[in-house]
Amino acid sequence: MIGSASTLKSMFNKLSDEDRESLLDSVLGEGERLDRYIRNLLDMTRLGHGTLKIEGDWIALTDILSSALRRTRNLMSKVHVVLSVEEDLPLLFVHPALIEQALVNVLENAAKFAPAGSDLTIQARREGNELIVATSDEGPGIPEDQRSEVFDMFFTGGEGDRGPHGSGLGLAICHGMVAAHGGRIQALAGPNGRGATIEMALPLRESPEQEFNRESRK
Amino acid sequence: MTLPTKYWEKPCILVIDDEPQIRHFLRISLKTEGYEVLEAENGETGLRIFSAQTVDLVILDLGLPDMDGSGVLARLRECKSVPIIILSVRDRELEKVKALDLGANDYVTKPFGIDELLARVRTQLRGRGREDNSSDSETSAIFDNGALYIDLAMREVVVHGETVRLTPKEFAVLQVLLLASGKIVTQSQLLRDIWGPTHTTDTHYLRILIGRLRQKLGDDPTEQRYIQTEPGVGYRFLETADRA
Known about the structure:
The structure holds two protein chains of two kinds. Chain A has helices at 2-11, 17-49, 61-71, 73-76, 96-113, 170-180, 209-216, and strands spanning 57-59, 80-85, 92-94, 119-127, 130-136, 184-189, 196-203. By secondary structure, chain A is α+β, with helices and mostly antiparallel strands. In chain A, a hairpin with a 6-residue loop joins strand 6 and strand 7 (196-203). The longest helix of chain A is centred in the first third of the chain and has 33 residues, at 17-49. Chain B has two domains: 12-125, 3-Layer(aba) Sandwich (Rossmann fold); 134-243, Orthogonal Bundle (Arc Repressor Mutant, subunit A), CATH 1.10.10.10. Chain B has nine helices and twelve strands. Chain B has helices at 20-32, 43-52, 69-79, 93-101, 114-125, 134-140, 168-179, 187-195, 203-217; strands at residues 12-16, 36-40, 57-61, 84-89, 106-110, 142-144, 148-151, 156-159, 162-163, 184-186, 227-230, 234-237. In chain B, strands 2-1-3-4-5 form a five-stranded parallel sheet, with helices on both faces. In chain B, helix 2 (43-52) runs parallel beside helix 3 and helix 7 (168-179) crosses helix 9.
């Protein structure tokens, strides 16, 4: 980011419009990456200190998903998002911003590994007393012996805080936020043995739908 | 006593934010868009400028060094009814909701892109300088984008040529959102206005009703075209919907 910005500053008049535009894109992209990194560090610190307060609210998974997809629009533009959300899913009782952040991190992680133009599938379904959200990419996948480690803090699969492997915080935070809601998260092989699937399971409370039906007839 | 700016004059925006970088880029971008810009780096200065000058809109950072953001907001609201857009950080839904309840008109979450802020500013300044306030609601009383037609006065909703029947509560929610087109409406406000003051925390009523309303309007719950949920805060009828 500093390199791009200083190039713009020193050579502004000598650069072509295209080069300026591309350097500006780098500054913006790097700024967004740093913002995500700092936000992750702060989230991790709050999780570690136990200062994360859960403020539960009834919310539809589709509302959280919609907001998470809006926030990751730039990163997701290189993949083809396929949504498969079961109809009439019950409402969740969660802290919306935290589950949204967990989803954003899963999506960012998937987008990092997904080849350009590939399918990134988000599937949501009810299983008993849980709501399952599975995000699958068509990237290189996660070796079986590393699937439980991907949720460890600073696990990067061998690289620093850059490149496709990132900071090693994103999925650790997901794990923390989902666990704080009494849910589970696991890494699986992708569908048909391709890529990776990250599956979040969130507990469902008794649905307030019946009470609503009584109330809305008034 | 200062008079409001006439519509042919440049609207004046007061930016109250302690971060010089934010003021810097807002000064450049807002001036480029044709606004007058006044700046304050803390709450006291902001309030002083606000009472001495003609201001058409305030952009207020809630994290000021000298005063609590909601304190500044309350004092701004005591004087004039100009639109106030607050700047807040992510994960602070309660702070945003509190500010909206205290009379802020909308919010933008830091870090934000300039396009998002400019859209909020334009929405808030829409209809400025007109003698009567009714023109704004009149223009919003009919919505038509080809796929969806809503006539609030006739209580008529047509989706792809088919008339759709809404329950009284569904219509009431749609009406509130559409009349505030582009602006945030908090979930507690909708619950208070439509279900009554004892139901302000019964968000599940609203979630289920909005789910059914979206279904009837032919809206996608995940890629929301008409009614956008801002989780933890409220709902917004998307002004861009007619460009879909």
